[in-house]
Please model this.
Amino acid sequence: EDAGQTAEKTMKPDVFDQAPPTPPHIQKYRKEFTPGAICRHPGVADDRDYERLGTYGRVEPVGVKVHEVLNNAPTSYLMHTLEEKKESIYLSHKREPLGKPYVRGHQLPPELRNEGFGRPTPQDISGDQSKELLHPRERIMPEEEHRMYVKSHANYDPGEQRHRGYTWKAKDSPIDPAMYRFGAAVGEGELLGVAKAMNPSLDDKYKRPAVVVDKTLEDFRDLSVESLGKVKSLGHGDRNLTPAHVFGLASQRDPEWGVRECIGNYTPEEQQPDKDLGRSVRPGWRNTAPPSRTFGVPSIRSDISAPGQKSVADHQNYGNEADAFALLYPPRFTDGGVSQADFLEAQSKDELADIFRSAGFDLTDEHLEDAFARVALSALMNTPAACDPAFGPACYPALLPTSSRLYLAVCRQRLWMRRGWSRCNPSGWL
Model:
């Protein structure tokens, strides 16, 4: 034991064996942990001008302490007596002293002290009428009256059987409804049917399925766990081990499937990103479109109908323009500005008569009416109305070729008249 080393010094090393203080020229670079100390930057620690900022807040006046303001309860019996003497001059203390109610000084007559308010009613007059009205007594109803209520109102007593008055007949004797039980009696071997179905182990004929366990665990149980109905094995004698039995654990075994493989060892197909990754689940906010969707405006606007009179500035293709074959092999009248659609336009009778007469034909009204009748008949023959027996088969060869050629000649003549050719001979067309 060292000289001068006592138990007190050993228990209180911070008091008797204090650490040497930090030099003043190094103290300014260390962090100050003293409560209430001002933290300054090392560069201004030696400045004397900062000493005037050493005191923060208002200076506490002399005579007023914080503990006196917060803890204003008397600390002794003398202080309590002085406090009571100071409070006794107030009217509220005299009128309502602590622990006593406020006495107003009213005096009630002696009649009101012993009797209750109001005038009592004699018991022989009132009796238990109110009680009988609120809780009437139940009387015993006779059997005849009860049967009448059962018949008229079906007023059965609690637990009473609803007997409808039927006469039950059997082969041997009449049936008493109060003692009769429906169904067949349960035989001796049919007991516990539901219980055996829910718990098959109750059935003696039930064969338990084989329980597959680990062989290592079963060998451990054979050596360490006591068997039911057998003497505890102390490890002596024959253990009934096979010649191939090896004690201890194998130094290296095949890897077993465990939690690690269930969590991380998944197939390459499962490692692919989800199909909806990056897609919003809200319709209307999805940033991907189906592969069959085509963006932009279509070249041929077949989704909208073409205007009746197309503007010159309208360059939109409505599906009525010529295709590539028509561009490579233009029709006969394309040079004149006449398209195939112009031949299919409907013309009135007056317009056709004006076209033929302007071209030099001596077309009378009778010929015009006959031509229109032939054309109308030809158009009618191409419809289901041509199956009518009123139209004879002998008129088909005579009417169809002539009317069709005449109608085509009329349409072509009118188109050429529009382009500026007058007095053309359509004999080549006929």
